[in-house]
Amino acid sequence: MKSFIRRTMKITVLTLIVVGLLAPFLILGMSSFAHEWRWPQLLPASFSLRAWTVVFQDSQLWEALFVTAVIGMLVIVLNFLLGLPAGRALAYEEFKGKSLIETLLLLPILVPSLAIGMGLLFTAIRLGMADHWIGVVLIHLVPTLPYTIRILRAGYENIGWKYEEAARNLGASPFTVFKTVTFPLLFPSIRAVAALSFVISISQYVLTALIGGGQVITLAMIYYPYVSGADRPVTAAFSLLFIVLTIALLLMFESLFLRSRKKV
Amino acid sequence: MFKNPWKKCGIGLVGIFLVAIFAGCTNSESGQTDEHSENSASSEALLEQPWEKTEAAAENSQVNLYMWGGDEGVNRYIDNWVAPRLKENYDITLKRYPMDITEVLQKLQTEKRANKETGVMDIIWINGENFKNAKENGLLWNSFSDKLPNFKKFIGQDRADLQTDFGTPVEGMEAPWGKVQYVFFYDAAHIKKPPQNFIELAQWVKENPGKFTYPEVQDFTGSGFMKHLLYDKMGRDVLENELYREELTNEHGDAVWQYLNDIQPYLWKNGENYPASLTELDRLYSQGEVWMTMGYNEARAERLIEDGTFPETTKSFIMEPGSIGNYHFLSIPFNSPNKAGAMVAINELLSPEAQLEKMQPSVWGENTPLSLEKLSEADQEKFKNIERGDSVLPSEQLEAAYLNEMDPAYTEWLKENWMSEVVQTTH
């Protein structure tokens, strides 16, 4: 009897979760095909492919998808290059001014990017990085790196340095330690960092527009103007495209990791 | 504690990154001055030389057009009609970049401060407040519009309605591209006879509680609604082409607020909430929650009806004392790398053919700034014969009701007081 109740409860909760997760997608999908969908109709009166035609007829769509994906992946790579050492240092080391540095590293997400956007553009112009994708990649570090460092620091703190020490005592080189001990243990944090920095990077509009000067056209540059319009199907179609892009990247990341783990 | 190979490396990398960013601030500006003088010298000449020379200079060049990209009809018009035409006729490659005017101006402002004399934008789409800011901050190139053959032929410098843009003298710094008028839209399935003036509108609102609202004053369309009310309460002769007078707002202000307070309880959500933008009002209208919407561009409902956003029974109306209209313009930034190309492209956008195509309801639908009487007989016929659609009022009616934008100081006055006079008052 007890187990029956537990099972029904389990199933109910699971169904609720699945419905709660899937319903927004279903509604988005339906809106993107809806022709006339007015309250109080439960389903659209008729369907059309117009919104998707608009999306795929955009002369810059394919270029934008490519640019968005490449910038997003470079942002992930840079986040690891800078975030892994920084997170580790903050987790394991004690040094003078540590809390100051921590606050400094967190600042970019506390200050709205619009407020610093102009100053960053000014600097980018001086450095000759304005209107160029390199500048955009670097500027996307501003809203992503603070999160990365936080997440990786927490990850390192969870593992503790003793595993690494043990491996080192057994004669492993720092690189082998990282590859066989730290990386697999840290993987949940690493996955979170990859997903988060990618999502943040692809949804940047203001920073991309300012530093990229409109010359670097990402998906957000095409999509955002439509959000300010009343055209719901087109907005819905673009939103789905965003989601698909993110999922594709995460799947790719996941499969890469699985393969590397099999080799070990 | 064991030796940590990552520590130094990590702090070092972050350090290098920070240094690189701050170092940028002190970089020298050498190399930019030469470019600057050369650029401005040749651009001055552009305004003196015969048009053929400008066309020749523009040949085989790229022109970057920066404009808001949220309307696929407009985007398609530029990409599929204008761009191929410029390529064919002048060997100009027109590239459209979607960017909001706010970011465009921020960017230009920063480039100005950084002395970047060779930018990336050749043409920007601008009007009103933004034009005022750009002009006052020296972000625009020069007075160029009367050098364009099509401007000279079909518009001319003496048009009374084109001397100012929302009160800011135009002085040739921008060339008019389109003309829109403020109209109200209603669903004829629910409303048989739309109101003819503000008194009838108030009656209608009270008879149909919850079916009307207007965007809040911070929204362009919201302040537009209230400006019509100002015209109604203060009178046309003291507002049109006149400067702001404080005694007018002192004298008539109460009547304006009283009207808005009077209808407030009968608005959508009992007037406790106002839509934050025209987009929100349009959504309410498209969902059938309210039965009226409004806005600049008398023809904007056509395509919304076609794609199913607005009900097919959507029609438009204007009320006494008239319908405020304005123009939007194209301009050339101070640091455009291809000013000759920009001039040729703008000239082409002002051609009767390009304007005619733009006015088709399936393309864009908005009105032209060209003076029809200056066109050839054949072109006049074509403009008159455009089927603008059932939701668009006849052009005679629109023209007869045309009201100029008033001094922007009145908009400021509305923005300063609406919240305290209307929203925060209790009933």
Task: Report what the structure shows.
- The complex is a heterodimer of chains A (264) and B (427).
- With 264 residues, chain A is mainly alpha-helical.
- Chain A has twelve helices and two strands; from the N terminus they run H-E-E-H-H-H-H-H-H-H-H-H-H-H.
- Chain A starts with a helix and ends with a helix.
- With 427 residues, chain B is an alpha/beta fold.
- Chains A and B meet through strand 1, helix 2, helix 3, helix 5 and helix 10 of A and helix 1, helix 4, strand 2, helix 5 and helix 12 of B.
Beta fraction of chain B: 5-15%
Q: What name goes with the CATH superfamily of the largest domain in chain B?
A: Periplasmic binding protein-like II
First-residue to last-residue Cα separation of chain B: 72 Å
The number of strands of chain B is: 10
**What is the CATH topology descriptor of the largest domain in chain A?**
MetI-like fold
Strand arrangement within the widest β-sheet of chain A reads: 1-2
Helix content of chain A: over 70%
Tally of individual domains of chain A: 2
Low-confidence stretches of chain A: none
Alpha carbon gyration radius of chain B? 25 Å
Question: Greatest chain-chain interface?
Answer: A-B, 59 and 59 residues
Identify the quaternary structure here. heterodimer
Overall mean confidence score, pLDDT of chain A = 89
Order of helices and strands of chain A: HEEHHHHHHHHHHH
**Largest beta-sheet characterization of chain B:** 8 strands, mixed
